[in-house]
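PROTEIN DATA CARD
Card holder: Aminoglycoside N(3)-acetyltransferase
Chain length: 267
Origin: Grimontia celer
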Amino acid sequence: MSTTEQNIKTAIEALNLADKIIFAHCAMRSFGGFEGGADRLLDTFLSAGCTVVAPTFTYFPMCHSPDGIEYPQNGYRGELEIDPSPYDAHANDIEPSMGAFAKAVLNHPKRIRTEHPMNSYAAVGPLAEAALAPQDDFNVYGVYQSPQARNAVVLSMGVTPNSITPIHYAEQLAGKALFRRWALTANRGVVETCVGSCSEGFIYLQPYLSPIQTKKRVGESTWTAYPLEALLDACAQAFRTNPSIIRCSDDCPRCEDMTLGGVKTLN
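Structure generated from the sequence above:
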C-alpha cells in the first residue's frame, strides 16, 4: 500500500494544522510510497496555509577554533579531525541524514534559510521570515522563540523522538549550557557558534511526551503532533527532574558533558 494526497489532507484537518507553523521531522520511507514524493507533500502543507520549518543542518563547515580555545565540558575529547568547506546560506548543502523532506524545503524556490553555519533551518510559507528571524550563531534555537511560534506544532512523520530537534532547546530551558563549535563561512570567515547535544537518548522522554501528543495513522505513516510549548515544558521538566534521563551510553562525551550541565565558558 501507499499513502495518498487525500490521506495527507485529511490528517492536516484532523490535527488542526492549517495556517500554523509546522516544525516538521519526516521520514518519507514511512509513507510506503507517495506519488510526487517530498515535493508534493510540502506543496500539500503549503496549500493548507502552513508555514513549514525544517532543520537543514550541515557539518561540513565545522573547524577548530582559530585561537585554540578549548572549553571544558564541551562534548568532545579532541576527536574532531576535519577539512572544512565554507557555509553559504544561499547554497543548498545539507547533511544527508536530514532526509528528503528537509531537502525539499531547502530546495523550494521560495525558501528562506538561516545563517547559522552548522544548524541552519529553512522555511517556506507566509510566516517563514518571522519564524526564522530570532536565530543567530549563539541563539541556535531562536526559531522556537518567535511570537508566531507560540501556536506552532511539532510534527513527527514516521520518526522517533530522537529526531525532534526542539528537545535540544528544552535542555537549554532547563539550565544546561549548549556546546560551542567553530565553523567556516563564505562571508564571515570562521565564527563561533552554539550547537546542541546528542539526541540518541531522546527516546527515553516518551513517558513525558505521551500525555501531550496526538497520534494519527496517515496512510502507511504514523504521525505524532505536539504543541510546541507543551513539548518544551514537558521535556524541560524531565531534564530538571533527572539530568541524565537522555544519556545514550556511558562512553558518549556529549551525553556525559550535558549531564554535568554543558559547556563551561568565561562568558
